[in-house]
Amino acid sequence: MIYIIRHGQTDLNSKHVLQGQSDHPLNEVGERQAQEAALLIGNVSFAKVYSSPLTRALQTARIAAPGVPVVVDRRLIEMDYGPYEGMDLKNPSPEMAEFFSDFVHNPAPDGMEQLASVVERCGAFLEDVLEEARATDVLVSTHAIAMKGLLEYLNPQSKGGYWSKFIGNCAIYTAKVVEGGFALPVELR
């Protein structure tokens, strides 16, 4: 089975700033969230933990699965927001407000990674770990949009439904491995 977790809170999350691929650590709240996630996961004995290279995801992985070596995979990094990184989410630019209003029908503004690219790289990661997840439990620590890309890949019938879904800090989804691939993802919290 595969477990997918979004990183805990950072100071930029608490200030509603778009952090994207900039590298920021967990704050105290984020560390507590990761500890609570570890309790929610319970007695799962992960054979492998994968993480985005960004500090907040690495910290979350190490707290959620203590003692298990973490393998960094760049395909799990957050969406590249380009010139919009650092933007105040309470006062987005007009083009970002339009993008946020309907992710499915509005392409990402110029200079940003497109959602199809996020799904493609996250899907390639899932295909690479499929056999491993068939044999053992695997934890994946990532970011909100990258996590949505993983979920979209796992459930293509959603037709973009995950893009508008709120995924909070340390939200966890699981997906069992079934004949032919992964089952539909299920939210733990």
Structural notes for this entry:
It is a single chain. The protein is α/β, with parallel strands linked by helices. The chain has one domain (2-187): 3-Layer(aba) Sandwich (Rossmann fold). The chain has helices spanning 11-14, 28-41, 55-64, 94-101, 115-135, 144-154, and strands at residues 2-6, 48-51, 70-72, 138-142, 172-175, 177-178, 181-182, 186-187. The strands form 2 sheets. It has a 6-stranded mixed sheet with strand order 3-2-4-1-5-8, with helices on both faces. A two-stranded antiparallel sheet has the order 6-7. Strand 6 (177-178) and strand 7 (181-182) form a beta hairpin. The chain is globular, with a radius of gyration of 16 Å. The mean pLDDT is 95. Keywords: Hydrolase. The active site is at 7 (tele-phosphohistidine intermediate), 78 (proton donor/acceptor). GO terms for molecular function: fructose-2,6-bisphosphate 2-phosphatase activity.
**N-to-C SSE string, H for helix and E for strand:** EHHEHEHHEHEEEE
What CATH calls the topology is Rossmann fold
Measure the end-to-end span: 17 Å
Average pLDDT level: 95
Number of helices: 6
Order of strands across the biggest sheet?
Answer: 3-2-4-1-5-8
What's the CATH architecture? 3-Layer(aba) Sandwich
Whole-number radius of gyration? 16 Å
What's the main sheet like? 6 strands, mixed
Strand content: 5-15%
The overall number of domains is 1
Shape: globular
GO molecular function: fructose-2,6-bisphosphate 2-phosphatase activity
Keywords: Hydrolase
Binding site for substrate: 6-13, 56, 78-81
Pfam families: His_Phos_1
